[in-house]
Write a structure and sequence with these properties.
Blueprint (H helix, E strand, L loop, with lengths): L2 E12 L8 E9 L3 E5 L6 H9 L6 E10 L2 E2 L5 H7 L4 E4 L3 H4 L6 H13 L3 H14 L16 H13 L5 E5 L7 H18 L2 E6 L2 H7 L2 E6 L2 E7 H6 L4 H8 L17 H4 L1
Parallel strand pairs: 3-8, 3-9, 6-7, 7-8
Antiparallel strand pairs: 1-2, 1-4, 4-5, 9-10
Helix pairs in contact: 4-5, 4-6, 6-7
Length: 275
């Protein structure tokens, strides 16, 4: 097992307000073949952390400090062209809402094939065969390559996004809440597919979520973020069964049990006053 990603001291601020830290001094590592989950409420800085790794921050935001090393190489100083050669080929990403990520006027087969042509130079019959194989790999009939995104179900669109993200067999996959809009049955299928692909391809997976049920299913390590900072980090067993931070404990109190007998509690922020 090798260290795939190392993020140290990452800080992100608005370009017009550098004193406001949207992500503050975040550090973590990711190993090949392992899944690290970043968990927290909306606005906690989870997606900004992932976008920083990909070099996809909006122009209104700045990474003001921190080191990001991928396979031992610093990537924060790379040009956008150099990062583009890494994105899609060595690091894949699944975005949260496939309908805003997929082009509605292009077939899903064409969209899967773009990265294969750009990064691997595939064309013609070789390209068609690879697209068909990728669709089969994610459980979609190859003939659906000619379908448009609005002709597919939500689960199928998410599977297309997964096919796009693994097309070039990346070393690392970033999944930004990929199951949020799906029903529980489809969510379970997607999570099982991602876990199977991760194991088979020995990928490292950085998984962004607000759902501790998802964390329990797929995580090896967990980071809990609150207001842009990591408030707790550890193995999945440590964080779920021996939480140390009051915010982590409060989040876990919001998780229902399978029998529906647990009394859910609103998040208690009183610990902030004592912090």
């Amino acid at each position: 097992m090798s260290e795939l990603l190392s993020v140290q001291g990452l800080t992100v601020t608005p370009a017009n307000n550098p004193g406001k830290k949207l992500v503050n001094n975040v550090s973590f590592t990711l190993q090949s073949g392992k899944t690290t989950c970043i968990v927290g409420e909306s606005g906690s800085g989870k997606s900004l952390t992932a976008l920083s790794v990909m070099g996809l921050l909006a122009t209104s935001l700045n990474r003001t400090s921190g080191s990001i090393q991928f396979q031992g190489n610093e990537i924060t100083h790379l040009s956008n062209d150099a990062l583009s050669r890494i994105r899609g080929k060595q690091i894949g990403m699944i975005f949260q809402e496939p309908m805003t990520s997929l082009n509605p006027v292009l077939t899903v087969g064409f969209q899967i094939g773009e990265s294969l042509t750009v990064h691997l130079g595939l064309k013609g019959d070789a390209l068609k065969a690879k697209i068909a194989a990728l669709l089969e790999q994610v459980g979609i009939p190859p003939e659906r390559a000619n379908a448009y995104p609005d002709e597919l179900s939500g689960g199928q669109r998410q599977r297309v996004m997964i096919a796009m993200s693994i097309a070039c067999e990346p070393k690392m996959l970033i999944a930004d809440e990929p199951t949020t809009a799906l029903d529980v049955t489809v969510q379970a299928q997607i999570l099982a597919l991602l876990d199977e692909l991760k194991t088979r391809m020995n990928m490292g997976m950085l998984f962004i979520t607000h759902d501790f049920g998802v964390v329990a299913d797929i995580a090896d390590d967990v980071l809990v973020m609150f207001r842009g900072e990591v408030v707790e980090a550890g193995s999945v067993d440590e964080v779920l069964f021996k939480p140390q931070h009051p915010y982590t404990k409060a989040l876990l109190d919001c998780v229902p049990d399978a029998e529906g007998k647990k009394q859910l509690k609103p998040i208690d922020y009183s610990w902030l006053e004592a912090a």
